Amino acid sequence: MNIISGGQSDFFGLDIGTTGIRVVELKSSGGVHTLLRYGYAPVEAKLLNSDAQPDQQKVAQLVKELVMQAKITTKNVAVGIPSQKVFTTVVDIERLTQDELAKTLRFQADSLIPTPLAESKIDWSMIGDSPVDKTKVEVLLSSVPNSYVENKLDLLESVGLNVIAFEPDSLALTRAVLQPDLPGARMIVDIGNNATDIVISINGVPRLTRSIPTGTDAIMKSAMQNLNIDAAQAQQFVQKFGMSKEKLEGQILGAIIGTIEILTSEIEKSIKFFSTRYNDMKIEQLVVTGGASVIPEFPLYLANKFGLSVEIGNAWRNISYPKDRQNELMTLSNKFGVVAGLAERTPT
Predict the structure, then answer these.
(1) Closest Cα to residue 112, out of 85, 88, 79?
(2) Which residues of the chain have pLDDT under 70?
(3) What pLDDT does 131 receive?
(4) Which residue, of 60, 131, 309, 336, is most buried by count of CB atoms within 10 Å of its CB?
């Protein structure tokens, strides 16, 4: 089972996240992706994050039910791998033929990936000349533990699905929220419930991927603790007043700024790390998506902090759909980036 590539023309995308399950099916023709069907089922985080076999089987059944409810027409599926489960890196390798490159990577993989080669699935893609050594090429390498892939494969096959590809969430998200073939470097900050994924891409190909264990849950907990309010009030206040200095005398901003600064310090480290390797490449834009993208004035805060153009990510930007569904789809956009990107994969 390849991590990055598969080979079926009819398939749907499946994202099993930390708070819900999402599916998207597209019709692709002549480079145009048209939305056919989509579905979303909120699921208890405790169930989705459990590795216990009975819980995993429940999740598989929920996937089956969602596929039926959404009226997905194919059993072939491309599945996202959460950033916490996959290791992705860029390495410099001698210029070799494809066969020689594959042998070299397999030989060197033990020193490149965090899990033993015998216990891992690996895949790679050559992405261009190395910026630090012109005699070498850059290779995007991904690995994931066998146990994770085989477990997901068994569970999804048990409910009648045919897994054609596993793909890291970072690759799928990049495909969804960036305009294809757009030159230059762009940064994506995807803020989920428990973690934030940071991706910096050049010409649409990720060159740096990181996962930070701070997300919207941590922001809400800061509001609860510092304002002595319950979870429902925290969510209401943060989503209504956000990072405004004027509203409620800036009390919400004061309550959450410490957690926000943990995130921004990690974004800053990522920019510095990227700039060290690609010192002639300027980051053109920051795309923010996920739960925190809808916190009032948060995108503006990032724009001022980093002096970058900031855009709120649109999961549907490369997908055609009826105009009368725009409001409905835009409401869901910040939760559908990964699954939309999975559905947009080009069969290979």
Answers:
(1) 88
(2) 1-9, 347-348
(3) 93
(4) 336
pLDDT computed for residue 4 by the predictor: 46
Distance CA 153, CA 96 (A): 33
**Two structure tokens written together for 337:** 């980036």
Beta strands 185-191 and 136-145: pairing type?
A: unpaired
Distance CA 259, CA 306 (A): 17
- CA distances 233 to 44, 102, 230, 237, 262, Å, are 20, 54, 5, 6, 23
Q: What integer pLDDT is reported at residue 3 of this predicted model? A: 47
In whole angstroms, how far apart are CA 114 and each of 1, 56, 89, 109, 339?
19, 25, 11, 9, 26
238 φ/ψ angles, rounded to the nearest 5 degrees? -65, -40
Q: Which residues lie across from 35 on neighbouring strands?
A: 26
CB atoms within 10 A of CB 150: 12
pLDDT digit string (tens) for 158-186? Answer: 999 999 999 999 999 999 999 887 888 99
| Domain segments of the chain as ranges | 1-85+146-179+317-348, 180-312
* pLDDT of the residue at 1: 36
Which neighbouring-strand residues pair with 138?
A: 92, 128
The CATH code for residues 180-312 is: 3.30.420.40
In this prediction the pTM is: 0.91
The pLDDT value recorded for residue 51 is: 86
CATH fold for the domain made of 1-85+146-179+317-348? Nucleotidyltransferase; domain 5 (3.30.420)
Cα gap 19→129, rounded to integer Å: 39
Q: Copy the structure tokens of residue 313.
A: 């990510």
Which residue has tokens 């039910």?
65
End-to-end CA distance of the chain: 13
Residue 99, pLDDT score: 87
Residue 283 makes CB contacts below 8 A (sequence gap 6+) with 185, 186, 187, 200, 271, 274, 308
Q: In one letter, which amino acid is 41?
A: A
